[in-house]
Design goal:
The protein is an alpha+beta fold. Helices cover 25% and strands 43% of the residues. It has 2 domains: 2-63, no CATH class; 67-211, Aminopeptidase, CATH 3.40.630.
Length: 213
Protein backbone atom coordinates (compact mmCIF):
# COMPACT_ATOMS: atom_id res chain seq x y z
CA UNK A 1 0.00 0.00 0.00
CA UNK A 2 1.38 3.39 -1.00
CA UNK A 3 0.45 6.90 0.00
CA UNK A 4 1.56 10.18 -1.52
CA UNK A 5 0.81 13.46 0.20
CA UNK A 6 1.16 17.07 -0.86
CA UNK A 7 0.84 20.18 1.28
CA UNK A 8 0.14 23.57 -0.26
CA UNK A 9 -0.17 26.82 1.66
CA UNK A 10 -0.91 30.26 0.29
CA UNK A 11 -1.42 33.68 1.79
CA UNK A 12 -4.47 35.54 0.65
CA UNK A 13 -3.67 38.88 -1.03
CA UNK A 14 -2.48 41.31 1.64
CA UNK A 15 -5.15 43.92 1.07
CA UNK A 16 -5.50 44.58 4.80
CA UNK A 17 -4.38 43.23 8.17
CA UNK A 18 -7.08 40.57 8.15
CA UNK A 19 -5.81 38.99 4.96
CA UNK A 20 -2.21 39.49 6.05
CA UNK A 21 -2.76 37.06 8.93
CA UNK A 22 -4.92 34.58 7.05
CA UNK A 23 -3.38 31.39 5.69
CA UNK A 24 -5.08 28.56 3.83
CA UNK A 25 -3.61 25.04 3.81
CA UNK A 26 -4.48 22.08 1.65
CA UNK A 27 -3.35 18.47 2.11
CA UNK A 28 -4.00 15.94 -0.61
CA UNK A 29 -3.65 12.19 -0.08
CA UNK A 30 -3.37 9.81 -3.01
CA UNK A 31 -4.07 6.16 -2.26
CA UNK A 32 -2.92 3.29 -4.50
CA UNK A 33 -3.40 -0.32 -3.44
CA UNK A 34 -2.99 -2.29 -6.67
CA UNK A 35 -6.70 -2.40 -7.38
CA UNK A 36 -8.26 -0.85 -10.51
CA UNK A 37 -9.23 2.34 -8.69
CA UNK A 38 -7.22 5.06 -7.05
CA UNK A 39 -8.83 7.34 -4.50
CA UNK A 40 -7.97 10.88 -3.63
CA UNK A 41 -8.81 12.59 -0.35
CA UNK A 42 -8.32 16.31 0.09
CA UNK A 43 -8.31 18.08 3.45
CA UNK A 44 -8.49 21.86 3.74
CA UNK A 45 -8.10 24.06 6.76
CA UNK A 46 -7.64 27.76 7.36
CA UNK A 47 -5.82 29.58 10.12
CA UNK A 48 -6.53 33.18 11.12
CA UNK A 49 -4.27 34.99 13.60
CA UNK A 50 -5.53 38.17 15.25
CA UNK A 51 -3.19 39.53 17.89
CA UNK A 52 -2.62 36.82 20.48
CA UNK A 53 -5.58 34.75 19.27
CA UNK A 54 -5.50 32.02 16.62
CA UNK A 55 -8.68 30.73 15.04
CA UNK A 56 -8.85 27.46 13.09
CA UNK A 57 -11.50 26.84 10.45
CA UNK A 58 -11.50 23.26 9.20
CA UNK A 59 -13.11 21.71 6.19
CA UNK A 60 -12.53 18.44 4.38
CA UNK A 61 -13.99 16.92 1.29
CA UNK A 62 -13.37 13.89 -0.89
CA UNK A 63 -12.03 14.36 -4.37
CA UNK A 64 -12.76 10.94 -5.78
CA UNK A 65 -10.72 10.14 -8.87
CA UNK A 66 -10.73 6.64 -10.31
CA UNK A 67 -8.60 5.31 -13.16
CA UNK A 68 -10.15 2.36 -14.98
CA UNK A 69 -9.96 0.57 -18.31
CA UNK A 70 -11.47 2.33 -21.31
CA UNK A 71 -14.83 0.94 -22.43
CA UNK A 72 -16.73 1.61 -25.66
CA UNK A 73 -19.23 3.87 -23.91
CA UNK A 74 -16.40 6.28 -22.99
CA UNK A 75 -15.50 7.08 -26.59
CA UNK A 76 -18.40 9.42 -27.45
CA UNK A 77 -17.53 11.41 -24.31
CA UNK A 78 -13.86 11.58 -25.30
CA UNK A 79 -14.95 12.67 -28.78
CA UNK A 80 -17.02 15.52 -27.35
CA UNK A 81 -14.12 16.58 -25.11
CA UNK A 82 -11.72 16.92 -28.06
CA UNK A 83 -14.27 18.82 -30.13
CA UNK A 84 -14.21 21.73 -27.69
CA UNK A 85 -12.51 24.70 -29.36
CA UNK A 86 -10.88 26.09 -26.19
CA UNK A 87 -9.50 22.66 -25.30
CA UNK A 88 -7.91 22.18 -28.71
CA UNK A 89 -6.47 25.71 -28.58
CA UNK A 90 -4.96 25.10 -25.17
CA UNK A 91 -3.51 21.74 -26.19
CA UNK A 92 -2.49 23.03 -29.64
CA UNK A 93 -3.89 19.80 -31.05
CA UNK A 94 -6.60 19.85 -33.72
CA UNK A 95 -9.83 17.93 -33.21
CA UNK A 96 -10.36 14.80 -35.30
CA UNK A 97 -13.59 14.30 -37.19
CA UNK A 98 -15.91 11.48 -36.11
CA UNK A 99 -14.55 8.71 -38.34
CA UNK A 100 -10.89 9.63 -37.82
CA UNK A 101 -11.38 9.82 -34.07
CA UNK A 102 -12.98 6.40 -33.70
CA UNK A 103 -10.46 4.80 -36.08
CA UNK A 104 -7.62 6.28 -34.02
CA UNK A 105 -9.04 4.94 -30.77
CA UNK A 106 -9.65 1.49 -32.26
CA UNK A 107 -6.00 1.40 -33.32
CA UNK A 108 -4.47 2.51 -30.02
CA UNK A 109 -6.71 0.18 -27.97
CA UNK A 110 -5.50 -2.81 -30.02
CA UNK A 111 -1.83 -2.14 -29.29
CA UNK A 112 -0.74 -3.88 -26.05
CA UNK A 113 2.21 -1.47 -25.72
CA UNK A 114 -0.21 1.37 -25.03
CA UNK A 115 -1.46 1.99 -21.49
CA UNK A 116 -4.72 3.93 -21.58
CA UNK A 117 -7.08 4.73 -18.72
CA UNK A 118 -10.37 6.51 -18.36
CA UNK A 119 -10.41 9.22 -15.69
CA UNK A 120 -13.60 9.09 -13.64
CA UNK A 121 -14.42 11.91 -11.23
CA UNK A 122 -17.25 11.32 -8.75
CA UNK A 123 -18.89 8.86 -11.12
CA UNK A 124 -18.53 10.94 -14.30
CA UNK A 125 -16.10 10.36 -17.16
CA UNK A 126 -13.80 13.38 -16.93
CA UNK A 127 -11.17 12.46 -19.51
CA UNK A 128 -8.43 10.01 -20.32
CA UNK A 129 -4.73 9.51 -19.67
CA UNK A 130 -2.28 7.27 -21.47
CA UNK A 131 1.27 6.33 -22.26
CA UNK A 132 2.85 4.82 -25.36
CA UNK A 133 6.30 4.07 -26.82
CA UNK A 134 7.68 6.57 -29.33
CA UNK A 135 11.20 5.84 -30.57
CA UNK A 136 13.52 5.71 -27.58
CA UNK A 137 10.99 7.37 -25.27
CA UNK A 138 7.77 6.43 -23.52
CA UNK A 139 5.42 9.39 -23.82
CA UNK A 140 2.49 10.38 -21.65
CA UNK A 141 -0.53 12.57 -22.32
CA UNK A 142 -3.93 13.27 -20.85
CA UNK A 143 -7.11 15.09 -21.86
CA UNK A 144 -9.59 16.51 -19.38
CA UNK A 145 -13.03 17.70 -20.50
CA UNK A 146 -13.25 21.47 -20.13
CA UNK A 147 -16.24 21.24 -17.79
CA UNK A 148 -13.90 19.51 -15.31
CA UNK A 149 -11.05 22.02 -15.43
CA UNK A 150 -9.93 23.76 -12.26
CA UNK A 151 -10.81 20.94 -9.85
CA UNK A 152 -7.41 19.27 -9.44
CA UNK A 153 -8.50 16.25 -11.48
CA UNK A 154 -5.53 16.25 -13.85
CA UNK A 155 -3.08 16.44 -10.94
CA UNK A 156 -4.81 13.60 -9.11
CA UNK A 157 -5.10 11.42 -12.22
CA UNK A 158 -1.45 11.91 -13.16
CA UNK A 159 -0.29 11.13 -9.62
CA UNK A 160 -2.30 7.89 -9.66
CA UNK A 161 -1.15 6.97 -13.17
CA UNK A 162 2.56 7.27 -12.46
CA UNK A 163 2.16 5.08 -9.39
CA UNK A 164 0.67 2.41 -11.63
CA UNK A 165 3.01 2.83 -14.60
CA UNK A 166 6.49 2.09 -13.33
CA UNK A 167 8.44 2.84 -16.51
CA UNK A 168 11.04 5.58 -16.10
CA UNK A 169 11.81 7.96 -17.51
CA UNK A 170 8.39 9.07 -18.70
CA UNK A 171 8.24 11.98 -21.13
CA UNK A 172 5.52 14.47 -21.98
CA UNK A 173 5.36 17.25 -24.55
CA UNK A 174 3.33 20.34 -23.71
CA UNK A 175 2.89 23.54 -25.69
CA UNK A 176 4.54 26.51 -24.01
CA UNK A 177 1.31 28.49 -23.52
CA UNK A 178 -0.41 25.65 -21.64
CA UNK A 179 0.63 26.84 -18.20
CA UNK A 180 -1.94 24.66 -16.42
CA UNK A 181 -0.56 21.42 -17.83
CA UNK A 182 3.01 22.52 -17.14
CA UNK A 183 2.09 23.01 -13.47
CA UNK A 184 0.38 19.61 -13.36
CA UNK A 185 3.53 17.92 -14.67
CA UNK A 186 5.80 19.80 -12.28
CA UNK A 187 3.66 18.86 -9.27
CA UNK A 188 4.22 15.20 -10.11
CA UNK A 189 7.99 15.59 -10.42
CA UNK A 190 8.41 16.12 -14.16
CA UNK A 191 11.41 18.28 -15.05
CA UNK A 192 11.69 20.44 -18.15
CA UNK A 193 14.40 19.35 -20.56
CA UNK A 194 15.78 22.74 -21.58
CA UNK A 195 17.60 21.54 -24.70
CA UNK A 196 14.66 19.59 -26.10
CA UNK A 197 12.08 22.23 -27.00
CA UNK A 198 10.79 22.24 -30.56
CA UNK A 199 8.87 24.77 -32.65
CA UNK A 200 6.28 23.54 -35.12
CA UNK A 201 5.15 24.95 -38.44
CA UNK A 202 2.45 26.88 -36.58
CA UNK A 203 5.17 28.74 -34.66
CA UNK A 204 4.13 27.26 -31.30
CA UNK A 205 6.87 25.94 -29.05
CA UNK A 206 6.56 22.49 -27.50
CA UNK A 207 8.43 21.83 -24.26
CA UNK A 208 9.63 18.38 -23.27
CA UNK A 209 9.27 17.26 -19.65
CA UNK A 210 10.67 14.08 -18.12
CA UNK A 211 9.93 12.12 -14.97
CA UNK A 212 13.37 10.77 -14.08
CA UNK A 213 14.36 7.38 -12.74
Amino acid sequence: MQFVTALDSNFFPQRNNFHKNYMSYEITLWHHDHRPGNRVQRFCFDVLTVGAFTFHFSMSHSLRVVLREVVDADLPIFFAHQCDAESTRMAAFPARDHDAFFAHWAKIRRDPANIIKTIVFEGEVAGNIGSWPAGDKRLLAYWIGREFWGRGIATAALAAFILEVKHRPLHAFVVKHNIGSIRVLQKSGFIQQDSASTKGEDGLEDLLFALPQ
